[in-house]
């Protein structure tokens, strides 16, 4: 009987609505929600055809959410002593990120501390070691013309 109760509670929790956050492919209007969740400061810099929204917390984690002039987040980058909540930042693209990470682990001779993938309409460049993690994830079809993705940090 206890097992059935636990299962019912577990399924009930899955049905709860999840909070919305700015995420890859979504609008920039909720970047402030990410700032609040990370307990961080936010600074936005307007570039020629996009905005760099920089979220920095007291632990030294820096997250960039790059948005087009129409407000769509086309790339996310991070640098710091740990990875940010990538499920929050990547939104619907998080499952593609997980798939790429699992495929990376299955490849022999590949370092588990690096991930480079260009599949499913998503580009991932990630590296990390203890207390030093960095990465950039972007959707090529969303990148504004004239933006050099190699310059995203």
Amount of beta strand: 25-35%
Cα-to-Cα separation, first versus last residue = 53 Å
Structural domain tally: 1
Strand order of the largest sheet: 1-2-3-4-7-6-5
Helix % is 25-40%
The 3D shape can be described as globular
Mean pLDDT: 82
Low-confidence stretches: 1-21
Instruction: Describe the largest sheet.
Output: 7 strands, antiparallel
In short:
The chain is α+β, with helices and mostly antiparallel strands.
Account of the 3D structure:
The protein is α+β, with helices and mostly antiparallel strands and 153 residues long. The radius of gyration is 17 Å and the shape is globular. Residues 1-21 have low confidence and may be disordered. It has one domain. The longest helix has 13 residues, at 2-14. It contains four helices and seven strands.
Helix/strand layout:
Elements: H1 2-14, H2 31-38, E1 40-46, E2 50-57, E3 62-68, E4 73-80, H3 86-90, H4 94-106, E5 114-119, E6 122-129, E7 132-138
Antiparallel strand pairs: 1-2, 2-3, 3-4, 4-7, 5-6, 6-7
List keywords for this structure.
153 residues; alpha+beta; seven-stranded antiparallel β-sheet; 33% strand
């Amino acid at each position: 009987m206890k097992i059935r109760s636990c299962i019912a509670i577990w399924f009930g929790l899955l049905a709860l609505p999840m909070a919305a956050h700015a995420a890859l492919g979504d609008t920039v209007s909720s970047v402030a929600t990410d700032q609040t969740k990370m307990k961080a400061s936010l600074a936005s810099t307007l570039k020629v055809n996009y905005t760099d929204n920089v979220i920095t917390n007291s632990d030294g984690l820096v997250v960039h959410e790059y948005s087009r002039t129409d407000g769509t987040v086309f790339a996310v980058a991070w640098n710091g002593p740990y990875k940010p909540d990538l499920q929050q930042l990547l939104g619907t693209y998080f499952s593609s990120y997980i798939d790429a990470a699992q495929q990376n682990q299955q490849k022999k001779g590949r370092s588990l501390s690096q991930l480079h993938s260009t599949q499913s309409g998503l580009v991932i460049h990630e590296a990390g070691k203890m207390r030093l993690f960095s990465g950039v994830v972007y959707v090529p079809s969303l990148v504004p013309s004239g933006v050099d993705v190699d310059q995203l940090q």
